[in-house]
């Protein structure tokens, strides 16, 4: 391995260490999990992904040769980021998160105003129209039944309707008593 490749690998590993520190800040800021087990699993996954990315970069730079200066370069990049760029990046990250939250809220409000509100208004309009039409139908049925009863009442009285209704009621009560006697006999 030439000296140029070693220097390129060294500076690439410094950049990788800085990138790991930056991604760690983003990961910690955006992690919303509160359970210790899920956080442990997510931490393990984060560090596995970081290790794979570093080894991919190392393999790309010098065919995966692992030397002590590579670890020193990663730690140097991490510490350099932590003491120089981190405060500025955290402020930038907070602004980006606020902008994303504002954008999500604006999209939710837009969807509510353009989709949900018209659907609710249409539902209320249709239900009021349906109630109005049902009221008209109910009123019409009542008026027609009154009119029909006015014309049918003389025929009902002429055909001895009350007497027939009384006979039907008596037959119904006898039928009920007969069935209730059967069930009483079965219970005994």
Give the CA-based shape: elongated
Figure out the total of helices.
4
Instruction: Give helix and strand order, one letter per element, not per position.
Output: HHHH
Overall SS class = mainly alpha
Q: Report mean pLDDT, rounded to a whole number.
A: 85
Assess the beta-strand content as a share of residues: under 5%
Rg from Cα: 42 Å
What does the model show?
With 188 residues, the protein is mainly α. The protein has 4 helices and no strands. Helix 1 (3-30) runs antiparallel to helix 2. The chain starts with a helix and ends with a helix. The chain crosses the membrane at residues 37-59, 66-82, 102-123, 130-152.
Summarize the structure.
Pfam families: Spore_YabQ. The protein is mostly helical. Helices cover 92% and strands 0% of the residues.
